[in-house]
Amino acid sequence: MHSKIRGIVFCLLSFVLSFVLLLLSISVMLEATILNPSYILDNMNTTNYFTDKKDEITRELVDLGYASGLEESFFGNVVETVTIHDDTEDYLESYYNGGSAKISTVAFRQRFNSELDSYIKKNNVKVASSDSREYLINKAASVYEANLRIPMFSMLSPYLTALKDMMPLLIGGLVVFAAILCVIIIFANRWKHRAVRYICYATSGTFITVGIIPAVLFSTGYVSKINIESRAFYNLFVQSINSVLIALAICSAVFLIISIGLFFLHKNMRKHASEE
Amino acid sequence: MSDKKVRHGHRSKNGKGFIILPIIFCLVTYLVLYLAFVPSFSPIISAMGMFFSDNEKDYSTEYDNIFVPVSENATVPTVTKKDSDGKEKSYVKKDSVQYPGYGNLFGELIISDCNVDANLFFGDGDVALRNGVGIYAGSFVPGYGGTILVAGHNNTYFNGLKNAQVGQRVEIKTSYGNYVYEITDTAVKSANDSSAYDLSADYENLIMYTCYPFDELGLTSKRFFVYAKLVSGTQIDKGGN
């Protein structure tokens, strides 16, 4: 009876360790991906985001051109990938620093204005009024700004900033807590192979708990079924989530290797203990 | 020695514990997370469902084309019913009409005298106006007996409206029949002037509009309206007597 209670207590400790390791895995994964300022930019480069965005903005501006008398060819040079890249970088940087995250349209406006002047001169077009020209430029700038704004990002950014600040402390705390639990399990067991067994239960539990998320999401293809109107955002979203899932799968694989190692260590130690 | 073996080995017979316990840990972990977070996260999880569809989004096509032109000699299935005056009248069978969804290409609008020949979409979004002209989704399709409010850009498909004159004919072709209208009036009005059209009219009428003035650069707040009345075309059977 006494050994049964002892077993239950150690199983509970093992479960708590498994839970702590799960939280640690998720925290490390978040720190390496979503909370890393260069993570989104890296994914943007991988998915050809800036070129896709240029095409989308140009297409929307062409629609604006149809309504305002500008030919399609006018928009060929109005939007530049470099400008989109720089403005997006500033926008993301501002978010991660907890700033107001305004998208600058200064460079775009200057470019649009100068192209418009050249177009009017070259084609000898009559401008309806200075107000309508100003309205057109403002409208084009708002199209540019709206296209660069990442959906839901403004809603999530306060949480991201708060999480980013507390993450090093959280990871440190979880590592210490996990270490304390391991020490308790090791020193509270007279037979050390039993301690190894309980730690193995915990790492195996974490392997399954962490691994089940990417396994389910990859096998169902759920992520790729998201409905986003912009192709650039769709590719970015799918790529970003897939990277997070791959990070979780790697985490899970690490726990699997540790579990296998602990399993053989346990077998070995138990054999030695039996032989004593 | 053998006694010790029993003591060391009794808890993990055949190593089952190494499989069962981690699975139990996994299930309990998700149960704990579910109980802890679902009350606060369930609205977000429900809302997330709206962002996902059954299939991957297809970016290869911009719009669905359901327009199959009715040839001159072809006949559209009709039913004969008495109208409000007691006269017998033919209607397009309601089963043979495929109503367009928002953004569908479902017809063609032609004004020969104005050199207008455009794809007709249901809905006047960017895709529709990029590829033709679009019926405002709050108005009616041709043959339904209401106001058909059609928008188009003045620099592309509706540029020819600048030549619109009273008496000219407007043709609308759909998969369920062809309709002919006659221009009755033109007017320049403010974009915000809701008196420029009556969407609650109980008779079929066509209103086409575009930005004004034509061939000038800039976004304007004026609109050029062209009004037309139905001349010929079989009405759609809306059910009932």
Quick overview:
With 276 residues, chain A is mostly helical.
Would you give an account of this structure?
The complex is a heterodimer of chains A (276) and B (241). By secondary structure, chain A is an all-alpha fold. Chain A has two domains: 151 residues, no CATH class; 101 residues, no CATH class. In chain A, helix 1 packs antiparallel against helix 9 and helix 8 runs antiparallel to helix 9. The longest helix of chain A has 45 residues. The model of chain A has no long low-confidence stretch (mean pLDDT 89). Chain B has 241 residues and is of the alpha+beta class. Chain B is 20% helix and 30% strand. Chain B has an eight-stranded mixed β-barrel with strand order 3-4-5-6-9-10-8-7. In chain B, a hairpin with a 2-residue loop joins strand 7 and strand 8. Chain B starts with a helix and ends in a 5-residue tail after the last strand. The N terminus of chain B is likely disordered. The chains are: A mainly alpha (276), B alpha+beta (241). At the A-B interface, helix 1, helix 3, helix 6, helix 8 and helix 9 of A face helix 1, helix 2 and helix 3 of B.
